[in-house]
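Our consortium's second objective concerns turning raw sequence data into structural hypotheses that experimental partners can test. To show how far this objective has progressed, the report includes one record in full. It was chosen at random from the queue rather than selected for favorable results. The single chain below, 67 residues long, was entered without modification.
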Amino acid sequence: MSTRPPLPPFTRETAIEKVRLAEDGWNSRSPQKVALAYSEDSRWRNRAEFITGREAIVAFLSRKWNR
């Protein structure tokens, strides 16, 4: 597993950088890029839909962003 700096403990500046990197990932609307920020066995809930794993995250975000 690779690490992506900045890593804890955070300073004010590195915390701001981490948040901006996360925002940039979501704003890219790239499901593959967003999914890499989560563990392989992540579990999400979207209303009545339960999503487990990166592949399911990619599928969910692809459907959501293609609408």
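The partners drew two points from this record. The chain is about 50% helix and 10% strand. Helices lie at 12-27, 31-35, 54-66. Both points have been shared with the crystallography group to help prioritize constructs.
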